[in-house]
């Protein structure tokens, strides 16, 4: 179900308010480029700085703008189980196709706590659920044994976004889980090696900017055309790295601003890209002919 390219959408702001027009334009560009799906209010969507009503509205508008032309995976994770259930149920009512649930952050639950957390959320929705393991941000990793338990006990937990940064973990997950359980890469620079180890696609930051190229890379890799996939990977690798030159989503919003697609604004405590990073990013964009 989740094979392909899914764009972790930025949330555009103007005067510190959600810029709905820019968001709709962004989604239209994604659909036209042929992405498999979009992911509103994930990490890249600055979910920690959105209030509850904004969170609901961003998902609602994503569903409306996508208009069934691509899948919508709503970010509904929280470090409070009750809040994650509420957000997930609201996303389901809005018409999202699936929920992306990040591991609880800051409170560092045990693996048993993680299991109980995700199981309770899965039991509260009929949507498909994608786990999201990103220990660098959350301070805790969803252990392979925990993923296996959840996959066995919860029929609607069907995939994981793996952002731990190692191909070895993809191999370990693939060996431990049923073939039907899908693994999505969470790092653009690792998409190609992850697919070679058994992932079925990517939840991409870069595809906000270059959706067609990322989609082509993923399709080529999945179809076994490793030369085309490798050529695209090597061409865009400098961009993949520079989009994390500072905290995501600051660089991708700066890139979208430089290319005139929306304002680069982020919400505090995030702030504008430093001048040195901006120069480096701009040089990379020019080298890829992404700036006029």
* Helix content estimate: 40-55%
From the coordinates shown, what is the CATH architecture?
Alpha-Beta Barrel
CATH class: Alpha Beta
Question: Which sequence of SSEs, written as H and E, runs from N to C?
Answer: EEEHEHEHEHEHHEHEHEHHHH
Tell me the major beta sheet.
Answer: 8 strands, parallel, barrel
Radius of gyration: 18 Å
General shape: globular
Average residue pLDDT: 96
Structure, explained:
The protein is α/β, with parallel strands linked by helices and 292 residues long. The protein has one domain: TIM Barrel (Alpha-Beta Barrel). It has 12 helices and 10 strands. An 8-stranded parallel barrel has the order 1-4-5-6-7-8-9-10, surrounded by 6 helices. It has a two-stranded antiparallel ribbon with strand order 2-3. Helix 1 packs parallel to helix 2, helix 2 runs parallel beside helix 3 and helix 11 crosses helix 12. It is globular. 46% of the residues are buried.
Summarize the structure.
This protein has 292 residues and is an alpha/beta fold.
């Amino acid at each position: 179900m989740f094979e392909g390219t899914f764009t972790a959408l930025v949330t555009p702001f103007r005067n510190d308010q959600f810029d709905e027009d820019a968001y709709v334009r962004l989604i239209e560009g994604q659909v036209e480029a042929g992405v498999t799906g979009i992911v509103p209010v994930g990490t890249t969507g600055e979910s920690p700085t959105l209030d509850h009503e904004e969170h609901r509205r961003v998902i609602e508008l994503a569903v409306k703008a996508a208009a069934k032309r691509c899948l919508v995976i709503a970010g509904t994770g929280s470090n409070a189980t009750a809040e994650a259930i509420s957000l997930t149920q609201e996303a389901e009512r809005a018409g999202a196709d699936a929920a992306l649930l990040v591991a609880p952050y800051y409170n560092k639950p045990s693996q048993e706590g993680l299991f109980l957390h995700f199981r309770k959320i899965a039991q509260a929705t009929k949507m498909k659920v994608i786990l999201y393991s990103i220990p660098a941000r959350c301070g805790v990793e969803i252990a392979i044994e925990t993923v296996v338990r959840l996959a066995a006990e919860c029929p609607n937990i069907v995939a994981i976004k793996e952002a731990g940064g190692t191909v070895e973990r993809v191999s370990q997950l693939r060996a431990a889980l049923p073939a039907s359980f899908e693994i999505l890469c969470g790092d653009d620079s690792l998409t190609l090696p992850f697919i070679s180890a058994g992932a079925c696609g990517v939840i991409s930051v870069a595809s906000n900017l270059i959706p067609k190229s990322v989609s082509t890379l993923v399709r080529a890799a999945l179809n076994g055309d490793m030369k085309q996939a490798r050529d695209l990977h090597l061409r865009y690798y400098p961009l993949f790295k520079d989009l994390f030159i500072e905290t995501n989503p600051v660089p991708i919003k700066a890139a979208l601003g430089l290319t005139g697609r929306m304002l680069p604004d982020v919400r505090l405590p995030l702030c504008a890209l430093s001048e040195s990073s901006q120069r480096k990013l701009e040089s990379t964009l020019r080298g890829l002919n992404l700036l006029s």
